[in-house]
Predict the structure.
Amino acid sequence: MTKMIFVNLPVADLEKSKAFYEAIGFTNNPMFSDDTAACMVLSDAIYVMLLTHEKWSTFTTKAIPDAKKSAQLMLAINCEDRAAVDSLTETAAASGGTPDCNPKQDLGFMYGRSFEDPDGHIWEPHWMDMQAAVEGPSAEAIAQ
């Protein structure tokens, strides 16, 4: 059985959040969506459940932190290349997100950026050249 991940995120404005996630490549699964929650699908194994604050409070008694002021998690997602990292980050910015909320990372074999969704949840699109990561830095890189 393939393992799946369901990330649950509290959101202040469900329709705004749905529009944001659709703009960055997720699709809504109406079978698991209503006026309190939206199931946003990225792949066969990755789902994000957007939950109104009221719906969220039915799952936990803990307070909802202000993700624009504090960070509890960062969600990293792999991309096929550097251009896809940049494209996703720029699309997020054009769709109501905040780009580069954390410093860009460029280690040669690994490249990443970040963005916040409208509620401040941090996503980190990244690309990694697995062969270069396994082989280690090149002689040229070591010489620099």
